[in-house]
TrEMBL record:
It comes from the Eukaryota. It comes from Linum tenue. Fe cation 2 binds at D96, N134, H227, H262. It is an enzyme of class 3 (hydrolase). The keyword Transferase does not apply. It catalyses: a phosphate monoester + H2O = an alcohol + phosphate. Binds 2 iron ions per subunit. Its EC number is 3.1.3.2. The keyword Iron applies. This is Purple acid phosphatase. It is found in: Secreted.
Amino acid sequence: MAITKAMATSLAGNLKRVVGMPLVAVLFSFIFFFTVPSCVSQLTRLEHQVKDDGSLSLLVVGDWGRRGHFNQTIVASQMGRIGQELDIDFVISTGDNFYDDGLKGPHDPAFEESFTEVYTANSLQKPWYTVLGNHDYRGDAVAQLDPFLRKVDSRWLCLRSFMLDTEIATFFFVDTTPFVDKYYTEKSHTYDWRDVSPRRAYLANLLKDLENALRESSSRWKIVVGHHAIRSAGTHGDTEELIQHLLPILKANDVDLYVNGHDHCLEHISSHDSPIQYLTSGAGSKAWRGDTKKYDERVMKFFYDGQGFMSMQLTSTNVEVLFHDVLGEVLHRWKVSKDLHSSI
């Protein structure tokens, strides 16, 4: 797709306001997104500046888009309150952004009814870095990637897979839905596989791009975000395809956190064989009370089958994760530190 000077200037100006990064970096990222074919082995790279004190604060919410129903508006209100207290820099959405079957197109009123008109707090008027979930693929998946939605609400930034660089951490967003075998065979739903087929080549390129990006990254903290869980005691449980194909790459490249949604709960699972922590934040609206699986108590650090969200605060030496319920109360807190010169 060719891009004119006027288009580039407009896009750069708009995204500079949204992402808060230097104009040159914005322009490069957006021109790259619009002009480089998907076969090129490189994840789209965005940047976000940390605060003046070198810290970063954010919220994580998933599985939310229900036009305010199932307590979505209450969760959103508490996100606004906690977001103000933490002076958040951005929000991460772990997918399943619009129920039940994604968007019908870029002009679907569900976008505003489930997003713009729900997350109205001043503190939430920050960039929303977003991945697709399986329910998003049941509709017009490409619509959520359409730049038109940023004209409707400039906070919205959804790509299939990309990386977000900050000075202290890099977030690697992964499109996990195409990994799951059952979506290609089930008869009850149809999925929008445009730009994903042929599947084998798409996944091979994605895994190669991610592995290269992780290996080349010198970030203090490496955080991978996807919709589907690698480890979960929720109704969906572990995702075997991710354990087979994605997890070995994360282990080999010193990933600190894997953050996901999909199961409508909040949970923290540790690992026997690596430092990776598995964090589920998929409770943005409808939750599945009591629908859990037995799990190894040695690694299960926290599980809550109600509604809520997650907050995260990072510095160059510390990460603190808090899980909040529908009323914003802290249910679980976890903190990890790294020696400042450990990676030198």
